[in-house]
Design goal:
Order of helices and strands: EHEHEEEHEEHEEHEHEHEH
Number of strands: 12
CATH topology of the largest domain: Rossmann fold
Structural class: alpha/beta
Catalytic activity: 2-phosphoglycolate + H2O = glycolate + phosphate
Radius of gyration: 17 Å
CATH superfamily of the largest domain: HAD superfamily/HAD-like
Number of domains: 2
GO molecular function: magnesium ion binding; phosphoglycolate phosphatase activity
Function: Catalyzes the dephosphorylation of 2-phosphoglycolate.
EC number: 3.1.3.18
Family: Belongs to the archaeal SPP-like hydrolase family.
């Protein structure tokens, strides 16, 4: 089967842990003759800048599905879910000394530095009726709505592009990529991915980070599952 598009995480998938962009992965992405969607837990401007640097146009899922756009000059779709996240932060901040990250730019979730007891925080939130969850992506801790994720973002961007989620190959490395991989037609976990993500993936790379992404793109092209411009 030849797939019509690729959805890929950024941090830990086309970057290393220090967020250095893999030039090998970017070269492979740029060669593809299918649309590439960047699907990230990071903010929209970060994703847009990354897309421009890679040269893969303008399809973006940001803030773990909360912000979606298919054009740089178009007003993005923004989920109306921030209120409960702010309420959750207010509750947690009574018990923990927490530092917000990118708070000026975040529209649908709250992101925190990874320097407090995550399990205690989860236990505290479980005593509330807030429809939120708290996840650790290895780069930051996210307080996010349970209503949205990269999977819901994939459904929305696929509709904008006139495609179905099953038309996509998805590549990721962390807990926030689970729904993305589950909905895609073919799913890939890079070698550095969390074990539970590897368990649901159709393919696990031998190499880690961007090297793993470059490896699997070569594999998919060789099998006729993705087309290149060459």
């Amino acid at each position: 089967m030849t797939f019509k598009a690729l959805a890929i995480d950024i941090d830990g998938t086309i970057t290393n842990m220090d967020r250095r962009l893999s030039l090998k992965a970017t070269e492979k992405l740029r060669e593809l003759d299918v649309p590439v969607v960047l699907a990230t837990g990071n903010i929209l401007c970060y994703a847009k800048a990354t897309a421009k640097l890679i040269g893969v146009c303008c399809n973006v899922i940001a803030e773990n599905g909360g912000v979606v756009t298919d054009r740089f000059d178009k007003k993005p779709y923004i989920s109306d879910v921030i209120t409960e996240c702010e309420q959750a932060f207010d509750i947690l901040s009574r018990e923990f000394d927490m530092e917000k990250l990118d708070s000026v730019h975040r529209r649908t979730e709250i992101v925190l530095r990874r320097d407090f007891d995550l399990e205690r925080a989860r236990a505290l939130l479980n005593t509330t009726d807030l429809d939120v969850e708290i996840i650790d992506t290895h780069f930051a801790i996210h307080i996010k709505s349970k209503k949205i994720n990269k999977g819901t973002g994939l459904v929305r961007i696929a509709d904008m592009m006139g495609l179905k989620p099953s038309d996509f190959v998805a590549i990721g490395d962390s807990v926030n990529d689970m729904e993305l991989l589950a909905l895609a037609g073919y799913s890939v976990a890079v070698s550095n991915a969390d074990d539970f993500l590897k368990d649901i993936a159709d393919h696990v790379t031998r190499e880690s980070y961007g090297e793993g992404t470059a490896e699997v793109i070569d594999y998919l092209v060789s099998k006729g599952m993705l087309n290149t411009r060459q």
